[in-house]
Task: structure prediction
Amino acid sequence: MARLRTDVSHSARIWNYWLGGKDHYPVDEEVGDQILGFVPALPRSAVADRAFLARAVRHLAGTEGIRQFLDIGTGLPTADNTHEVAQRVDPSCRIVYVDNDPLVLTHAHALLTSTPEGATDYIDADVHDPEAILRGAAQTLDLDRPVALTLLGILNFVMDTDEAVSILHRLLDAVPSGSFLVVSHPTTEVDGEAMTQAVEYWNGQGSAPMTLRSRTDLARFFDRVELLEPGLVSCSRWRPEPGEPEPAEVTHFGAVGRKP
Result:
């Protein structure tokens, strides 16, 4: 497991800072504020990304009847974690979380508060190693039954698009027809120039490098699934709650697809 570094910013902790949490260090606030100098609306994107996850999980557990979730790139616990949303729909849901940040690991107990009928587990693993993820997940999930694979804000740390697609293919190969893929990713589609400058700054100050992708690049992630409506959109616009005003576009795009 990687050593906890409090002198170098980490994306999960900056995300926590933008979401109003307390699990971050001064370096994360400093870098987070610098990034907001490029894209002031990023906290709105962070909130929209979490809301997209909750809406997608509610739909999958409710309408689609999914009872197993593999959440890769979990991040720090916040309100409405995957298991909380899913188990409110059906207490028997089983959830496996995956991350490799030492601070996330120290808070993993907050992700393991399952209902008696269901189960949660946490795997310390890297998205670049899908085989290790699948081996660990099989201890809690039945991979012969449909699984929802959720990867929010994690594939942007896989710099090569071909490798990112290969990782998704390996994960999808391991689960049966009727499984689902949920992805969100920062893009160049909204505030593209400012986002590019922000990522250049991020990559230049010692943290794990990340990349932005276009809509065309992101569409490749879903080449083996059937997209649910409304397709690949700004994550704020994926099935917003009825009666809400038209949400503003945010810098993260997302989609949900079903494996045929």
